[in-house]
């Protein structure tokens, strides 16, 4: 749950990077970082907090360069804070590297480095990736690296580093400053690129391109490296490509609706999911007078549901814009505190009506329960809940912060889950205090993009296999983080 940016243009690249980072701030709010290169000088600044509070005209004036990168971080491996903020830099052969995703064998890599007396300076999982890549490059030659060298070194790196990731890097290749980006073999985490008169940009989401005047060109192909040099055609080299499985949770909840990921509009996908859920609600014979989305993610799906059910969609919740996104608050305490600040209701939209509240997902159950108790005060005649995703029953080890089995509410009701969807939905309705609760079926989610997807947190089929000890090491890492 991070966002990455890389830009290659004429000069003063830092201003575009800061702007682009703000457009993807929803992907991580713990810390941010910005790095640029100007001839032989490297500039790097990382800090706790939001982009707008760290980077302003005064701090940005300290940077120089025509090539650079930025990062917004939500920790899904390692602790919060400046020490783990990205990008990272390795002096030899001079690489800046940043990523979005999770390295699933991070703890193995860390151990291997320690055995060689190579100490890491952080608990951020991109740091060992940087050292592996640097090591593989230095095996090929000490200096004067080429694009071909980078591809060869990355092939070796992919054998040693396993995970769901989009990497963005800067280094001197073929005698010029070069921006590169690559994605994991299954393309689980998103990564797109764009162009503007011979300038290039890579980003986690296409919305960053619109903010900075770049034209979105498409995905960085999964399992592949893309290399960008000023005024030259980008070069794409396959590194290790498997069947593409983009994370469906990006479309359901995480990405901005105005982004395009893997060629699919996030907004349109939410409409599709909404229509599918409306079908199921109709089949269950639930009748309502009004549909009300939980802001903001659920709005497109709620609109589609209302159209299908032929009832109005209304704004029954007013969101405090400055409260942040509860799901991406790192600790349960932060989430509960933020939730109290987050929503208020417009009583008249609920009172004496049969209401369908629509939300994207139920992970820990706290938000849904809170929403139902809030709405209860407005005395609706009936209160139904529609969730346009299936129950989150399995952890995500690929970089979304739902990585601990014991925090998933569906797991807490596993005996009902095992009895089938109807029993489980009734139990969840009872838990939340609603009259009914309807989840989207997994088969609908799997059809929604018209291509294979990663839906492992719903069905337990992990496209990128991981061992039990790797799963445990990620869960332990998150438990440790929550304790501190
Ligand atoms: S397990 Fe779920 S959240 Fe994680 S990458 Fe797959 S679909 Fe996305």
Mean pLDDT: 93
**Total count of strands:** 21
Name the structural class.
alpha+beta
Give the N-to-C terminal Cα separation. Answer: 20 Å
Largest pleated sheet: 7 strands, antiparallel
Return the CATH architecture of the largest domain: 4-Layer Sandwich
Which small molecules are bound? iron/sulfur cluster
User: How many helices does DSSP assign?
Assistant: 18
Short description:
By secondary structure, the chain is an alpha+beta fold. It has helices at residues 13-23, 51-54, 57-60, 106-115, 126-140, 147-160, 207-212, 248-254, 266-283, 299-309, 332-342, 366-376, 409-412, 414-418, 421-432, 442-447, 456-459, 468-483, and strands at 3-8, 31-38, 41-48, 67-73, 88-90, 95-103, 163-173, 176-183, 192-196, 199-203, 215-219, 224-228, 235-238, 260-261, 264-265, 290-293, 317-319, 343-345, 354-359, 382-387, 436-439. The strands form five sheets. The protein has a seven-stranded antiparallel beta sheet with strand order 3-2-4-1-10-9-11.
Comma- or semicolon-separated keywords:
single chain, 484 residues, alpha+beta, Glutamine Phosphoribosylpyrophosphate, subunit 1, domain 1, Rossmann fold, seven-stranded antiparallel beta sheet, 24% strand, binds iron/sulfur cluster
Describe the structure.
The protein has helices at 13-23, 51-54, 57-60, 106-115, 126-140, 147-160, 207-212, 248-254, 266-283, 299-309, 332-342, 366-376, 409-412, 414-418, 421-432, 442-447, 456-459, 468-483; strands spanning 3-8, 31-38, 41-48, 67-73, 88-90, 95-103, 163-173, 176-183, 192-196, 199-203, 215-219, 224-228, 235-238, 260-261, 264-265, 290-293, 317-319, 343-345, 354-359, 382-387, 436-439. It folds into two domains: 3-245, Glutamine Phosphoribosylpyrophosphate, subunit 1, domain 1 (4-Layer Sandwich); 264-462, Rossmann fold (3-Layer(aba) Sandwich). 35% of the residues lie in helices and 24% in strands. The protein contains 18 helices and 21 strands. The mean pLDDT is 93. It is an alpha+beta fold. It has a seven-stranded antiparallel β-sheet with strand order 3-2-4-1-10-9-11. Residues 188, 247-249, 396, 398, 400, 454-457 line the site of iron/sulfur cluster.
